[in-house]
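Forwarding these from the shared drive since the link keeps breaking.
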Amino acid sequence: MKLSTKGRYAVMAMADLAHHNTGRPIPLAEVADRQEISLSYLEQLFGRLRKGRLVNSVRGPGGGYLLARDPDDMRVSDIIMAVDEPIKATRCTPGSPTGCHSHQGRCLTHDLWEELGNQIYMYLSSVTLGDVCEKRVLGSSRLTFEANRDGVAAAAQ
């Protein structure tokens, strides 16, 4: 499953705002430079983030963007959903009774991919922007990978 640039860039830019927060508005051009994202693309995303009430904009000299609430109260899934980025792993339309095949049936692996999308959404709903900025996201996946790698190495001996 691939998350598109819209969702990834929105989370990157919001993390940048949170990380560089001094209480004053941050110009989007600074975020664009630091994150190496097109300014015009960020302007589109921030329009959606503002409508989603995740950021506040300040116009004029010294203007820019501020987070609308504390990073620990902002879930990563909220950011992704605000930029209209669906979190799905199937080809089918979410909630549709018909499938992705030409005869309107579901493929054999539909439930597998649908549940993967649900798990991704649940995970992103459990992680806050504060978790990302404070590097509290690392952990169990690294341990699982290392345990699996060590188990394979031990079995090979």
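-- next protein --
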Amino acid sequence: MPFSNSIHNLPTISGYPQAQRYFSETRKPPRSKRWEEHQRPLLNTSATHYRIERSATTLQGSPEFYDLMLYGTSMVRYFQPEADGSSEVWLRNHNSTTSRRFLRRVANFSGHSVREAWDTADQQEKRQPKRPVRIPLSTYVSSAFTADNGVTVPSSWSAVLTFKDNGLVLERSAHRPVYIKRTSKDATATRTEFMDKLKPYIDILLLSIPSVHAETKIKRDDGRAFKGIEYYPRNKVGDLLQWSNERLGDMSEPMFKVLQDIFAAVYKHAFGVWVQREVSWQDAHKYFHWSGSPIPEHMPMLSPDAVRSSFERYLRDNICPIRKGDIPVDLGQFPESLPKTYYY
């Protein structure tokens, strides 16, 4: 069975009671040295990388928590419910396709809208749950994080959540910070000055498109997509910025060579993107190989306007990314909505 499809066959275990029931109803694989007493398979005996694990029992005899395991990592931890009916859940994310699918399928968690828990007034007056909130999950972080409400997210975990009455108790929950980034006025001024100094040299480089096109080689990426690039000389942009800050005269020959190298790399990338969009998958495989191939003669060059746009955007983004900015702005805990691009 393909690995990517096996996750779809896993059971959904969305809380401590379900975890306890599943564990008690599932036999430990007999005569198997790969399974311990505190472990049960989520798929089959051979799939040891999908399992549920029970913690050591408390004095009352009930397990303190159950872990939903992906390989050697606990992705979800369900704690035993407390006397008031609330239950704590820890979540972890590695920002991989497998971990996201595992969280969606097994824990029934996607990070989309989750209702805030009712309080007494809401139950009496409206009988309606509070606002829906989002629960963004950061990737691995080695340090603990404590939110303003005093809830601490332990090291390597993404969120600590407390649920009650099928809703999220915000006062007892926290996730690692989420940011958007804004571009400062100083960064905008630096970028503008830098691009103004480079403009005459970019005009010269655009005249070299025929030779750059002829020397460009791209290769298949994974048999389906063509990234069209192996090396982006990002570190070299810093050399150009240093030249821009220190020199008021003409660009030196070594610096112009740096600019040429970046220009060639960006052209290669831009042409690879064009191949993905304009050339059929079958035709592209006739022309480009795993080891890299020259661009066939009948394939047209990219237009100067398209090359200029790609080149200038790359240079600007490496000085101060337009999409990211340089000033982090905290979105706060459990925002009602998340922008398309955000950062941890």
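Residues 253-278 form the longest helix (26 residues). The chain has two domains: 3-179, 184-319.

- D.
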